[in-house]
Amino acid sequence: MAEKDQTKLKAQIAELKAEKNAVIFAHYYTRPEIQEIADFIGDSLALAQEATRVDADILVMCGVHFMGETMKILCPDKKVLIPDMSAGCSLADSCKAEDFNQFIEEQTALHKSKPIVVSYVNTTAEVKALTDVVVTSSNAQKIVEQLPKDKPIIFGPDHNLGSHINSVTGREMILWNGACHVHSRFSLEALLRLKAENPGVEVLAHPECKAPILAQSDVIGSTKALLQHTIKSPAKRFIIATESGILFEMQRACPDKQFIPVPPEVTEGVGCSCNECEYMRMNTLEKVYACLRDGQPQMQVNKETAAKAVSSIKRMLEMS
Ligand code: 13P
Ligand code: SF4
Known about the structure:
This protein is of the alpha/beta class. It has 15 helices and twelve strands. The chain has a four-stranded parallel sheet, with helices on both faces. A four-stranded parallel sheet has the order 6-5-7-8, sandwiched between helices. α3 packs parallel to α4 and α12 (223-232) runs parallel beside α13. The chain is globular and about 60 Å long. The termini are far apart. The mean pLDDT is 95. 1,3-dihydroxyacetonephosphate is lined by residues 43-44, 122, 136-137, 180, 208, 222-223.
């Protein structure tokens, strides 16, 4: 879209937002122009926390479906709009509630007592309803460390994050075998080449990346933790292994620093050969404008599911 049209659309969005008393939230992986119009940009934890604090009639969640669902569960009386209802998440899709329930039952039979069920926030409301405590990449370690040591724990759905938390906490959580298609595709070969070409440059990675990538990283953290590290570190250059949307906020916060993205493995016929989450990119200015104008698509969560899911999300907020 031409810059002139973008500026016009941004002004129209600002007008509608004021008229309807709406607040726009955006995840760090969204397009730069979406981050520019957002009132609040954050990682999954910060977005959920902030949603419970704002005083607005309408919350527009520019992210993916599970983020809108979490927001609606936490703020049932507010209208939660998501610009594109079909913006899903491969990680959430890798864990169907029915299969997860069966896994919990099998592990309960095996251990002769029901394990504590910990789920990453990248899950459907139905999976959260089967969960004792939800975690995000910001608080997973802190929450798992607070759980009783003598009880088995199931962790789902991200296997890479679960293995990482097991290694830093010394726990042996039983892991569901799910993954994010963006984070599990970073190329180790490319990372090693970038490290050789840029000696001494720190590598920052999201814990959804595979273990060999994490083993080559200096800092492992949520999108927000990685951003904060780039701000406070005296270093001027960083190699980044996470979705490339975060580079916009890193560059905005640190205009004098350089960020080098790790490319993915190129697999014939599998998505794009870039490190972008196509679901996050489904949020466009046109769709934000249309959803504010029309008051839809509106997120709805089945009341019974929401009632069960809310306790596991609130437990997370208390334990964070
Ligand atoms: P954060 O919790 O770090 O924002 O991650 C969310 C996500 O979808 C990562 O792929
Ligand atoms: Fe889901 Fe991966 Fe996209 Fe995050 S980057 S929203 S985990 S598909």
